[in-house]
Amino acid sequence: MLPIYEIINYTGNRYSLTKAIMKRARQINFIGDEELEDFHGKIVTLSLKQILTNEIKYSQIDEEKPKESEGT
Predict the structure, then answer these.
(1) 20 within a domain of the structure (yes/no)
(2) pLDDT in tens, 10-69
(3) Contact at 8 Å (CB) between 10 and 51?
(4) What is the domain extent for residue 39?
(5) How many CB atoms lie within 10 A of CB 22?
(6) Is residue 25 included in any domain, yes or no?
(7) 39 in a structural domain
(8) Within its chain, how far is the Cα of 71 from the centroid?
């Protein structure tokens, strides 16, 4: 079952969450997953559930900081 309350109450970076879900969905598409049949082939829903319930860990994507130029 998809944890809707987890989506509503999510306080982290939604961009990072979305990127992690899409990356996991691509992984499932290529290599499959044992739970996929339980989700009736809905890959994004499965990846969303796995990320929000911490079955799959992901690291937050930090905004790129401008690098200081050398020699100035």
Answers:
(1) yes
(2) 888 889 999 999 999 999 999 999 999 999 999 999 999 999 888 988 876 554 444 555
(3) no
(4) 13-52
(5) 13
(6) yes
(7) yes
(8) 39
**How far, in Å, CA of 46 to CA of 65, rounded?**
33
pLDDT of residue 65: 47
Q: Residue 61's pLDDT is what?
A: 56
Distance CA(23)–CA(48), nearest Å, equals 10
**Using CA atoms, how far apart are residues 18 and 10, in angstroms rounded to an integer?**
12
C-alpha angle 42-51-17 in degrees, rounded to nearest 5: 100
Please check whether residue 66 lies inside any domain of the structure: no
Into how many domains does the chain fold?
1
Q: How far is CA 11 from CA 15, 25, 32, 37, 53, in A?
A: 11, 22, 29, 30, 14
